[in-house]
Design goal:
6 helices; Alpha/beta knot; two-stranded antiparallel sheet; alpha/beta; binds S-adenosylmethionine; 21% strand; 35% helix
Length: 182
Amino acid sequence: MRVTVLRLGHRPERDKRITTHVGLVSRAFGAEEMLLTGRDPSIEESLADVVERWGGDFRLKTDVSWKGEVIRWKEAGGKVVHLTMYGSRMQNVVDEIRMHDNILVVVGAEKVPAEMYDLADWNVAVGSQPHSEVAALAVFLDHLMEGQELTKDFDGGLRIIPSPRGKQVVGHRKQDFPDTKD
Ligand code: SAM
């Protein structure tokens, strides 16, 4: 399954940290790419740095037209999932969504254009209470991938050896973690 995340409505003056976290969650939980409306060099740098140190080939495409990307995605046969607290219960639709190969997951910031609700193949609620795009994305990706994303191998970077205590990291950029144990 190929998953791309579209982050709508990023406001550089307010959303830097949360949009960076949307990107980090996308990468860590199995998406291949994040599309961002607008540009923000600090987010580009942060995510590029994580990919360089921790591996994988997660990509960021900035300054996209959200509507153009959604329409292109659908024309290419992909499906579009818009995460919103007003949507269908995730538990009722996630099995159906998982049957498709190419999924674009859309998360908003403040106000999402009404058109997005119509263009989406599914409007999906992760619980019907307002919370956060970071939380909604993490929970949704986890359900979509049935937990498999948690053991994904990220080629070529630092790798953590899970330990009950302390920090164990192996890989070619160990100097980034001088306090880690061998
Ligand atoms: N009124 C918004 C909504 O439609 O969900 C809440 C805005 S929230 C600050 C920003 C984004 O978080 C939303 O655009 C949505 O993608 C995501 N979000 C927040 N709560 C959610 C929930 N319960 N289920 C799914 N997505 C949620």
